[in-house]
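Below is how a single chain appears once it has passed through the pipeline. First comes the sequence as given, then the structure the pipeline wrote out for it. We keep one example in the README because the format questions we get most often are answered faster by looking than by reading.
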Amino acid sequence: MPKRHFSLKRALLVSLATLLLASLAIVGAGVAWLRMPLSLPADKVDFVIDEGTTMRGIARQVREAGIAVPPEVLIAYARVTGTERRIKAGGYEVARGDSLWTLLNRLARGDVTQREIRFIEGWNFRQIRAALRRHPDVRQTLDGLDDATVTAKIGASTSHPEGLFFPDTYLFAVGSSDIDILRRAYRAQQRELADIWAQRDPDLPLGSPYEVLILASIVEKETGMEADRRRIAGVFVNRLKVGMPLQTDPTVIYGLGEVFDGNLRRRDLRADTPWNTYTRRGLPPTPISNPGRASLLAAVQPEKHKYLYFVSRGDGTSAFSETLDGHNRYVARYQLRGQGLQPPPSFQTETVRP
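Resulting structure:
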């Protein structure tokens, strides 16, 4: 082989080797950079990726959250590693010590940050809206919307939201909207109602799952003792069957709304509203709270007995009576004791206040 050709070949090999080493060095540096801890403005940083966000939009949200990754770099690495095609929407958290590689893998897995909010049995819709409004990780969209608009947004067939939301603890990604959480709670309550309705007593004087919801909401507010739920439900069912007014204080309080000051008076029992079960017979037009599963079950499987009255003993339990005379004796013992007062003759009520 001529000496000149050998020299050219050798020079070419050297050049190729140099390029290869340089490429390996670049790749190595890139891999090392992928593994380096990210610079964060705090120990933990949250950001939200909405459904349909482009890779450029994701890179911008990461940057705006204070995570020191140039958007072009994040886009390039996401494309090279194939992460771009697998990124899932949701709320994400980056902690001190996390690397870009950790972040990319978290995005690809859909490893969203979980928060929780709890709706308590017996809460009304005002309380649920307030809990959503207070939660720092819930995205607020309900401000300025009336109840009818909210129920339309969740797909409910009624314009009144009371009772439609199953009390439970709900996990959600940071940045989830209040309406999304309400929609989940609504669907959960619909599933519970369908299951409960299938288990109803054949003699139940209730014509629809919604009426079950109304009765269960009253039972939820009337008892603090698990053992009394089905018995209290039985009292209301007995009254419905014989046409007696339900005469339950929580419905009156609900009808008074925000003007109720915590002290139920005799004039309140006489003030007619659609929810006053002293002045109107039968069930009120809507639920008065959001009942849990135990109260729903009590409403469709009430205890069978002859009681028509009950009164709180003041310790969470209730005393039950078949007759008004027996009931008034319990009222005198447990509610008017030491006050020198008698039950008002115009109200055959389970709770009487002076």
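Confidence is low (pLDDT under 50) at residues 17-30, 338-354.

See the next section for the split statistics.
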